[in-house]
Amino acid sequence: MSQATIYGVLDVGIVNNGTDTTFASGVSGTSRLGFKGTEDLGGGLKAGFVIETGLSNKAATPTSLGDRGAHLSLSGGFGTVQFGAGVLSAAFFGRAATDPTGTSNYAIAKYAGSVRNNSSINYTSPNMGGAVVRYSTVLAAD
Predict the structure, then answer these.
(1) Cα torsion for 15, 108, 100, 103, to the nearest 10°?
(2) Which backbone phi and psi does 52 adopt, to 5 degrees?
(3) Residue 134 burial by CB count (10 A; 0-12/13-18/19+): exposed, middle or buried?
(4) Which terminus of the chain is more exposed, N or C, with fewer CB under 10 A?
(5) Which residues 6+ apart lie within 8 Å of 20 measured at CB?
(6) Complete DSSP assignment for 31-82
(7) What is the pTM of this model?
């Protein structure tokens, strides 16, 4: 059975800096629109996709489709293999592990390089008694 989802976050608000009151985008996060889906291939295998685009009411130029990530995946009893720009990079998990606020996984900016790389291959193992192995490699730097 196929499954597809449209999702998003619209983070806008009215901000007063003590002098001016303005309409702002990204007040406490990043606005985004995404599409994701899975297809059961049988035999315990599933194929999936994600494409996510950033949104901003103040951007001078429009964002490009998939600028927040676009990847294909194959999962089964062996875990999940992901091809493309996803957030399962070493940089992402380095940031998540060192986030002092525990709220966003992005509190330490510029730590360990880019979070997403368009030509990455990522592997996540199944849960093995509470332990999960993640591996990420980049075929070519963006």
Answers:
(1) 50
(2) -130, 135
(3) middle
(4) N
(5) none
(6) EEEEEEEEEEEETTEEEEEEEEEEE-SS-SSPPPTTTTEEEEEEEETTEEEE
(7) 0.68
